[in-house]
Specification:
The protein has 407 residues and is an alpha/beta fold. It has 3 domains: 218 residues, Rossmann fold (3-Layer(aba) Sandwich); 77 residues, no CATH class; 88 residues, no CATH class. The protein is built from 8 helices and 21 strands. A 7-stranded mixed β-sheet has the order 2-3-1-4-5-6-7, sandwiched between helices. Strands 8-9 form a two-stranded antiparallel ribbon. A two-stranded antiparallel sheet has the order 10-21. The longest helix is centred in the N-terminal third of the chain and has 14 residues. The chain is rod-shaped. InterPro entries: P-loop_NTPase (IPR027417).
């Protein structure tokens, strides 16, 4: 997993506005860092800069002296930025202060903030902290305040700041022409001895920081931050930094349903076929037929042809369609009872072959349009049972319930 290692460091800068946090970012190689020359903060959000060998995290100034103010949100924001950059650990905390003995409340708040940064660290955060004092003299105000907070937070009477280092720095360019360090025309080595550094010589400032940070890279403030995705909502971060909202319970559902019939449409005849005569039956009758008997011929001769004798002849009945003389015959043609169509022929009624219902009738089954399963079977999609959001895995949670992160 990507993150800090023996070759990558992460420096965190904290402290009041105007104490040089953003300027120091440029010393370590940060590009486009905003540097101000007043007490107005140039950093109102947490910014992560890429520097030589790692990252530099610049934070907003602590301009509120209320020592009881809760900075949990700021700590969480810093961690979230680290997770975003896949930074697992902190190597150094640079605490920027001024030699103000009256700012004890502010120092305590900042010290408590530094302590809270290491809430996942099993070691002592102050071993990796450098107190950077803006000026050419060091007052014990910040160290004393930090020692008090460290002992209280760790329930210890030991001096937990015994390995905390100090860096006194005053920029030469900020001095007035009458200042002794300007009038004295000292060499850079001499100036550096008294904590005065030239902004035009950033390599000297960097060298001092590097010497004070010795050992930090090998023994970082281990936070073991990791970025994982919740199984139930859109939260993707270290589980310890997750928002309190998730989706409480999931349910399967069918997004859209429709009424249908079971089977395919076929045509059938509703009744069987039978035999019939399509035409009428002509009843039996008699007719007069030429009589060719000897007696009839005698009559014709005697009457000189005036009388033409005939005789009656029986004509049997018959069916006009087939000339069948049997009045009781079963019929010459097969047709269906339901519609009178010839047999065989296409059906006179459309139905569904599985359910047997008429085509166009009221549906007998409700199914999902997407998966074609019955509506009362397990759904093909999942949604939150509370907010009913049909894409819960990519939506923020709706209730204060635990997340479901992978182990």
């Amino acid at each position: 997993m990507p993150g800090t290692s023996s070759s990558q460091r992460c420096i965190l800068a904290v402290g009041n506005t105007g104490n040089g946090k953003s300027f120091t970012a440029t010393i370590f190689g940060a590009q486009n860092a905003k540097i101000g020359n007043s007490s107005k903060s140039e950093t109102d959000t947490i910014t992560v800069y890429d520097i030589n060998g790692g990252f530099y995290i610049d934070t907003p100034g602590f301009d509120d002296s209320d020592e009881d103010k809760d900075d949990e949100g700021t700590v969480r924001s810093i961690y979230l930025k680290m997770v975003e950059k896949e930074i697992r650990d902190l190597t150094t905390v640079l605490w920027f202060v001024t030699p103000d003995t009256k700012a004890k409340g502010s120092y305590k708040r900042q010290a408590r903030f530094i302590e809270s940064l290491a809430k996942y660290h099993k070691g002592n955060v102050w071993d990796n902290t450098i107190i950077v004092t803006k000026g050419n003299s060091i007052e014990n105000g910040p160290r004393d305040a930090a020692r008090e907070i460290a002992q209280k937070e760790n329930n210890s009477k030991d001096d937990l700041l015994s390995k905390t280092r100090d860096f006194m720095i005053l920029l030469f360019e900020s001095l007035s022409p009458e200042n002794i360090y300007v009038e004295g025309m000292f060499t850079s080595d001499k100036l550096n001895k008294y904590g005065v550094f030239k902004g035009s010589e950033p390599e000297r400032i960097l060298a001092r920081y590097e010497s004070l940070m010795e050992g930090h890279l090998e023994h970082p403030i281990c936070l073991n931050l990791r970025k994982v995705k919740c199984f139930k909502c859109s939260e993707e971060t270290d589980p310890r930094l997750a928002s309190p909202e998730c989706h409480p319970e999931m349910e399967s559902f069918h997004p859209d349903v429709e009424g249908v019939h079971r089977g395919n449409v076929i045509d059938i005849h509703l009744s069987s076929h039978y035999n019939k005569h399509p035409a009428r039956y002509v009843a039996a009758t008699t007719r007069q037929k030429f009589d060719d008997s000897p007696q009839a011929w005698t009559v014709r001769v005697v009457s000189f042809g005036i009388v033409n004798p005939t005789r009656p002849e029986f004509v049997s009945g018959y069916w006009e369609c087939c000339d069948n003389h049997d009045a009781n015959s079963s019929g010459c043609k097969q047709v269906y009872h339901c519609c009178g169509k010839d047999y065989p022929s296409s059906g006179c009624q459309n139905i569904y072959d599985e359910c047997g219902h008429n085509y166009g009738g009221t549906p007998c089954l409700t199914i999902c349009k997407d998966c074609k399963k019955k509506s009362d079977e397990e759904g093909c999609k999942v949604r939150c049972k509370k907010c009913r959001n049909d894409n819960p895995y990519n939506k923020k949670g709706c209730d204060k319930v635990p997340h479901s992160f992978p182990n």
